[in-house]
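Title: Prediction job returns without error message
Component: structure pipeline
Severity: low
Priority: P3
Assignee: unassigned

Description:
Job completed but the reporter wants confirmation the result is attached to the right record. Sequence as submitted:
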Amino acid sequence: MPRSLKGRDIISINDLSKEEIYTILDVAKEFKLAGKVGRRERLLEGKNLALIFVYESTRTRIGFEAAMHQLGGDCFYLPVKTLMAARGEPWKDTARVLDKLVDGVAVRLFEHETACELAEYAEIPVLNASTPKDHPIQTLGELLTILEKKGRLEGLKLVYNGMTRALCHSLLLA
């Protein structure tokens, strides 16, 4: 039985065991099916997620915003340039402020170490929405698609063609 995922940081796909990845994919399939029949799970009612992005991403941003909305929560998009961290405030101080205002944070940053620092100092969960080293959340989405199309994840050969080395790295680790 996997340990609870509640409140956990996901900075690297390695933060999850194989069993936890399959648990997440099973839950994602259930949510996807519920959405197709018009049923909304309000599991995040009253919860807020901050999106801290140093660079834009249409799919990642809309994916998080749509998921939070469908689960009853809200998102706050915070470009890094609008934060005090852009003017020199330590990330650990930003983490402490976020703890008081939101229930989780998804980060898209140029430095993987910054995501690790936020996770170290924040009491709330920190999700890596892309750093140069890892892209674990998109990797989970890709694994779900592979599972739906192939019926399994084990024993497959994958070819990767794309510019996001972080995604390729995370897929290799998964």
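Comment from assignee: result matches the submitted record. The CA atoms of residues 5 and 42 lie 18 Å apart.
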